[in-house]
Design brief:
By secondary structure, this protein is an alpha/beta fold. Helix content is about 20%, strand content about 20%. It has two domains: about 200 residues, Class I glutamine amidotransferase (GATase) domain (Rossmann fold, 3-Layer(aba) Sandwich), CATH 3.40.50.880; about 45 residues, no CATH class. β3, α4 and β4 form a beta-alpha-beta unit. The protein is globular and about 60 Å long.
Length: about 300
């Protein structure tokens, strides 16, 4: 599906000893994959989504103390996006600025993608082509995190969230499959204000008080108190744009409900050129193409 062949590797002892249990595992797992070899010959992935990695792979320099914090922060957000997309069964590529992005229908900016230089130019070109961007956390801000580079986000950045932990409640457009109760966030996120023309799809709920240490006791679990009116998920235009917390703990599975061109998919953003049958899950290999419309897709 991702146009990659499986490989086998191990770290041998300098004597060349083989860890036989490891090779027993290879045999058991890869003998299953071997049956799919005929379908891999000449296969080419049809990938519509790209997850943006904001820097080239640093090699082993990431072990340096000066690089470690930044690298692990980026890697955590990439892992979160990867997990969510795999659960949704979306095919995607992880891209830097080396390859061309014009073939991708959806750009995903996980958490820490500042818009500057070539990345900003490419995102601008993508938006100008009428294609959607899915942004989480602080992505879309300038390098100094003073504000959003493009008005397309429809948000004003107010700084880091004052809530620890914050909770959220989903609005009607996102409510399918989500329990009717505030859900807690693992980490502090950012605080935004929705501008005119931006639809708020989920809202932040404040705790009774923040996690803290009073000198003797740690206050860790705090129940939700009240809605704040602060946006958690927003939509600008015809696509859902932003979530205000790190994606490393965000997963979501929605169903397609676009029965006609006047109804939009309830999926966080419907980047596919196809839709599954109304009421069924999106398919990574749909049986037939469906016509795209301004309302996401037509089934």
């Amino acid at each position: 599906a991702n146009a990659m062949r499986t490989t086998i590797g191990d770290h041998f002892h300098p004597r060349g000893d083989i860890n036989q249990p490891v090779f027993d595992l290879y045999r058991r797992i890869y003998s299953r994959l071997q049956r799919y070899e005929p379908w891999l010959e000449g296969a080419k992935a049809v990938t519509e989504a790209a997850v943006v990695w904001p820097a080239a792979y640093p090699g082993y320099e990431w072990r340096a103390p000066s690089r470690w914090e930044t690298f692990t922060r980026f890697l955590s957000s990439i892992k979160g996006a990867t997990r969510a997309l795999c659960e949704l069964k979306w095919q995607f590529d992880l891209v830097t600025t080396y390859p061309d992005w014009s073939s991708y229908e959806l750009l995903i900016l996980p958490d820490w993608v500042a818009l500057e230089g070539e990345i900003a130019d490419r995102v601008r070109a993508h938006l100008d082509a009428g294609k959607p961007v899915l942004s989480t956390g602080w992505s879309g801000l300038d390098a100094e995190r003073t504000g959003f580079v493009f008005d397309d986000w429809g948000l004003r950045h107010l700084g880091d969230s004052p809530h620890d932990p914050a909770f959220f409640v989903a609005g009607e457009a996102l409510a399918e499959g989500i329990p009717e109760m505030p859900a807690t966030l693992y980490q502090k996120g950012a605080q935004f204000e929705a501008l005119d023309g931006t639809e708020v799809l989920a809202e932040i709920v404040a705790p009774y008080y923040n996690r803290h240490w009073d000198g003797e006791h740690g206050f860790v679990y705090l129940p939700p108190d009240r809605p704040t009116g602060e946006p958690f998920v927003t939509q600008r235009g015809r696509w859902r744009i932003s979530a205000t917390r790190p994606s490393s703990h965000t997963t979501s599975t929605r169903r397609c409900r676009c029965a006609n061109s006047s109804r939009t998919c309830s999926t966080a953003s419907c980047p596919s050129r196809w839709c599954a049958r109304p009421g069924s899950h999106h398919s990574a290999a749909p049986p037939s193409p469906r016509r795209r419309t301004g309302a996401c897709c037509t089934c």
